[in-house]
C-alpha cells in the first residue's frame, strides 16, 4: 500500500490502487533508497514498485507489474500486467512493455521502444555465475515481437524489428527486420508491406 513518507516522492495527479505496493524495501543494500515518481502516475492493483528508482511522468502499470530498485526510467512508461523490470536498468521515454515480459538487470532501452508480450531479455552469459552480467541494449523505436528472446549483451539497432518467437544471438543492425531461431536478417523494415492492405508500410 502507498503511504507518503520518508524516501517516497510522487508528483501530483497520481492514482494508486489500494492493493498496489509503492515503496517496497529491497533486500539488497543500495546507497540511495529514494523513490521518485513524476506526475500523473497510474499504478494498478498488485503492482510493486521498489524504493531506490527514478521514474518520470505518466507512468502506467498493469496489474501485478514489478519495478525493482536502481532503475532510471523516463516519461510515459507503460508496463502491462505481470511484467518485471529488474534492477539497474536505464529506460527512456514512451516505452511500452506488454504483458508477461521480463526486463533483466542492466538492460538499456531507448525512447519509443515497443516490447511485445512474453519477451525475455537475458543478461548472464553462463548462469548462474553472475560475475559478468550484461543486459541487451535496444535502440530508439525498435520493436520486439511477442515471445522473442534476446541474449546477453546483444544490441538491437534503432527502428529494428525482431519477429515474434525469434531468438536473437547476434546484434541487429539499425532498421533491419530479423526472424527465426537463431534470428537472421529478413530485410530492411522499410521494405515490409502491410498484408491487410489497409496501408502500404506497416512501420512508417
Description:
This protein has 204 residues and is mostly beta strands. The chain has a single domain, classed as Hexapeptide repeat proteins (UDP N-Acetylglucosamine Acyltransferase, domain 1), CATH 2.160.10.10. It has no helices and 26 strands. The protein has strands at 8-10, 15-16, 21-24, 35-37, 42-43, 48-50, 54-55, 60-61, 66-67, 72-73, 78-79, 84-85, 90-91, 96-97, 102-103, 108-109, 114-115, 120-121, 137-138, 143-144, 149-150, 155-156, 161-162, 167-168, 176-179, 184-188. The strands form 4 sheets. A 10-stranded mixed β-sheet has the order 2-5-8-11-14-17-20-23-25-26, with no helix packed on it.
Shape: globular
Helix fraction by DSSP (H/I, runs of at least 4): under 10%
How much strand? 25-35%
The CATH class label is Mainly Beta
What's the CATH H-level superfamily name?
A: Hexapeptide repeat proteins
CATH fold-level assignment: UDP N-Acetylglucosamine Acyltransferase, domain 1
Uncertain segments: none
What is the annotated CATH architecture? 3 Solenoid
Major sheet characteristics: 10 strands, mixed
H/E element sequence:
EEEEEEEEEEEEEEEEEEEEEEEEEE
Number of helices: 0
Q: How are strands sequenced across the largest beta sheet? A: 2-5-8-11-14-17-20-23-25-26
Number of strands: 26
Label this structure with key terms.
204 residues, mainly beta, UDP N-Acetylglucosamine Acyltransferase, domain 1, ten-stranded mixed β-sheet, 30% strand, globular
Amino acid at each position: 500500500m502507498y503511504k507518503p513518507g520518508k524516501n517516497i516522492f510522487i508528483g501530483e495527479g497520481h492514482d494508486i490502487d489500494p492493493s498496489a505496493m509503492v515503496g517496497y524495501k529491497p533486500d539488497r543494500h543500495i546507497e540511495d533508497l529514494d523513490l521518485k515518481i513524476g506526475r500523473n502516475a497510474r499504478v494498478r492493483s498488485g503492482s510493486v514498485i521498489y524504493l531506490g528508482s527514478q521514474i518520470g511522468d505518466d507512468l502506467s502499470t498493469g496489474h501485478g507489474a514489478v519495478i525493482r530498485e536502481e532503475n532510471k526510467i523516463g516519461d510515459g512508461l507503460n508496463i502491462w500486467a505481470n511484467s518485471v523490470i529488474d534492477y539497474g536498468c536505464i529506460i527512456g521515454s514512451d516505452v511500452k512493455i506488454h504483458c508477461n515480459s521480463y526486463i533483466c538487470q542492466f538492460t538499456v532501452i531507448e525512447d519509443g521502444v515497443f516490447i511485445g508480450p512474453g519477451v525475455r531479455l537475458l543478461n548472464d552469459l553462463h548462469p548462474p555465475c553472475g560475475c559478468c552480467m550484461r543486459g541487451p541494449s535496444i535502440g530508439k523505436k525498435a520493436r520486439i515481437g511477442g515471445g522473442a528472446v534476446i541474449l546477453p549483451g546483444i544490441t538491437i539497432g534503432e527502428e529494428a524489428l525482431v519477429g515474434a518467437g525469434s531468438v536473437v544471438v547476434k546484434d541487429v543492425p539499425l532498421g533491419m527486420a530479423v526472424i527465426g531461431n537463431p534470428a537472421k536478417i529478413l530485410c530492411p523494415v522499410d521494405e515490409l508491406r502491410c498484408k491487410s492492405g489497409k496501408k502500404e508500410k506497416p512501420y512508417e
